[in-house]
Structures are given as C-alpha cells and as structure tokens.
Give the backbone structure.
Amino acid sequence: MRVMTTTSERAEWARHAEASISAAGLRAGGARKAVVDLLARQDCCLSAQEIRDALAAEPGATPGMASVYRALDTLTDLHLVHRVDLGGQVAKFEPAHPGGDHHHHAVCRECGAVVPIEDDDVEAALHAMADRLAFEVEGHDITLRGRCARCAR
Amino acid sequence: MRVMTTTSERAEWARHAEASISAAGLRAGGARKAVVDLLARQDCCLSAQEIRDALAAEPGATPGMASVYRALDTLTDLHLVHRVDLGGQVAKFEPAHPGGDHHHHAVCRECGAVVPIEDDDVEAALHAMADRLAFEVEGHDITLRGRCARCAR
DNA sequence: TTGTTTGCAAACCTTTTGCACGTTA
DNA sequence: TAACGTGCAAAAGGTTTGCAAACAA
C-alpha cells in the first residue's frame, strides 16, 4: 500500500494535463493554468473553495470562483481530474493519475480530516465483482467513515 | 448476493423505526410518519425531492420540503436511515436495515439509473483492510460508475 | 483577427432556519 | 397543557450561467 504521489509523478501529471488541454484545442489561460499547477502539487482532494484560497495565498492574480469551477469542469471532462463526493454538499477534486494509480478516502466524522487510502485486495475484489455484474463498470469510489487516529485516541 | 429486501424486512424496519422514534422521546407527526412509511416500501435510495413527489402522488396531505428534510435528519441521527451521496449535489436516503444488511450503488452515467449492489467478497476485503488501518472505520460506501445493462447494450 | 478564457454579478438549486400555528402525548 | 412537529417563506450555502472585456494562438 503506497499512498504518496512522488515528485516525478506530479510533474508528469502536469505535463500530461497541459498536453491534453492543448491537444483538445483548448488554450492555456491564467486561471486554468493556475488550477492545473496547484493540483499538480496535491496528494489528495481539494474543494473549489480550497483551491481558490490556496491560489489567493500565492503571488499573482487570484482567479474568480467561476473560473475555478470552469477549469475543474474542463479537466474532469478530459479525465485529468477526478471529482470526489465525500458527502455534505461540497465536491472535491484531485488529479487523476493515468497509470491507474488510484486511491480512496477515509473521512473523520469528528474533525473532518480526509485520509487517502489504498488497498490492492479491495481493488481485486472490486474488479472480480465487476466482472460478475450486468452493469458495465468503468470506475468506482470508496469512502470510509469513522474517526481518524488522532480523534480516536 | 441478494439485493432485494423482503416484505417482512420492510415491515420490520417500519416497526423498528417507529419504536426507535418513540423510544427517543419523539412524537409521530404526520410528515415524519409519511416519510417512514414511504421509505419502508423502498429497495433503494430516494432524494428528498423524490420522497416529496412520491408523497404528493399519494392520497392525503403532502408534507413540505422542510419537514421531509427534518424527518430525514432525525431518522439519520437515529441510524434508521442511511444518507447516500452519489455525486451531483443531491443527497439520497434509504432505510438502514439493522442486521448489517447493507448494499452499495452503481450509477449509470447515461441514464442516471441507480442499481443496488451487494458482494460478500468485497465486504470481507474491506473489513480486512479496515483492521490494518490506523483509522477507526465505522462504515463505508462504495459507488460504482459506468453504464447500466440497458445503456451498454 | 478570431475564437477562447476570464471575472463579475445574477441566477439556480438544494438544504437549512425562523417563526407562528397545529398536534401529540 | 407543555413540548414537539409542521408549513411557509426567507436565508444560506455551493455551483452554474450570461455577458462584456481581456487574452492566446
């Protein structure tokens, strides 16, 4: 089980994202570039608001929320970003790494912390199940709920 | 793998729900009763709007949305209802059957159909994983994404 | 230049809340 | 009758859209 994303994987994702955007005939505007750039540095998911706040804390112009949402929309359509729904009414977003590098989330009910989770046995069981279903499975999300190590202590 | 809920399980859930509500010192108002009654007849999740629409189609007074939400809130707090977040910005709700009878969801990206899913191997793998984590796991949700049998055809 | 991207503000939708009235135990 | 539940309308989020100005190719 390995959850951290390496530096080279992040750089690769950023390159891949820029290439896909350009291949799709889209342009590299400031807001979109800033969002890609920020996401490339993340290990786990962020909400649109968190993304904007992070960009506001950095030097340079802060994009409007609408542009953040539009960028996330575009990136999601290009399968560069994965939308994560952990409950509540806030969507979160994280880079989708092409090599199937793929994690899930555990959410602490006390402090709200989101912990990335990876497990090969669960993935295997899930794929085996998918083969048995009439449903044509293209992807899956798992959310664990409970208390993080700190809150359970 | 067995997904359907039997008639007796439904009746049992309704009884259990009414008992829990009363045991919690709460009263049986019209809206709350109507929501419990409707949920008892469901195999899978419904949104608040769907619940209200279904109640509007039945004889008798139609509860206000606020009351539907309040009823769902109360029932969720009492662990009688499970809140399901399948994406989008609409929460769905389904009866939580006490005996650990427990299913997940596959969502069709074309028609939006929600199909209930159950698999013992996946559950086992998930529990094994939970034992290995520092996180204190209390529950989990799985969402499969893809195309339903009809749309894939 | 030409079509794309951005920002702002307004619109939208789901969910929550305030408050007066009706109901339950 | 004293709480609790309900309905309506208003408020509160998060997200989307319309439109004119700024910008990339």
Remarks:
- The mean pLDDT of chain B is 94.
- The longest strand of chain B covers residues 136-147.
